[in-house]
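User: Hey, my collaborator sent me this sequence without any context and asked if I could get a structure. I don't really work with proteins. Can you help?
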Amino acid sequence: MNITICDDERRFDITAANRIVGQIMSKPDSVIGLSTGRTTHAMHKIVGKLYAEMQFDVSAVTFFGLDEVVGVEPTYAGACCAMLHDELIDALALDDRQLLMLPTKSADFAHDCRSFKERLRQRGGIDLLILGLGENGHLGFNQPGTPFGQEAWVTCMDPQLECRIRRETATPDDVWLGGVTLGLKDIMHARHIVLVAKGAHKAAIVYRMLNGDVSIDCPASILQLHPHCEFLLDKDAATLVDA
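Assistant: No problem. I've predicted the 3D structure and written it out in structure-token form, which is a compact way to encode the shape of the chain:
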């Protein structure tokens, strides 16, 4: 099992950013999947700073979002599309064709999920996928109980995220909010995965992911079976991991 433990949060963020930059520099037309949230915010910003300093070629790269919030506008600050633009895409001065996102609203999500996967396939498939880790072991919006064979779909979101979105947008309880995401089967088809986790609050689920049974009760446990997955942790998240 490929586990990398960084001494502190800053080194973690730099190491994660270097994984993204290294992929672009080794394969300029890479297809790279990104996740949003507190774990990935700083690494995205560092990638932008490295680009400003080094001006490596990003003209052929494709980025895509692993998941998206359903029921809000894509420009809403909490939408994954808006966050990726703010954290990275705008800093790289990419054009619209270089960022693929699942929709926030649709009359036919099943069709849009199939179309999204087809666009990824047409560009050569996923070269690198950066995955965040939910505190209950979820990957994207694939919550515990999600079948390992699940493909891209609309599902529920993390309850804490849903509460925050409702509060910030004054969305009534009777308006459904959800998440659209690549499924666990899609995730496992990525050629290379980097699972990133930092902070002491992730220590217990990191241990379960790495050492527990491969079970739908902890979706991230399926990564034990991926042939090219790096588990990138900071020291606090790795507290329970055997050295």
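In plain terms: The mean pLDDT is 95. You can pass these tokens on to your collaborator as they are.
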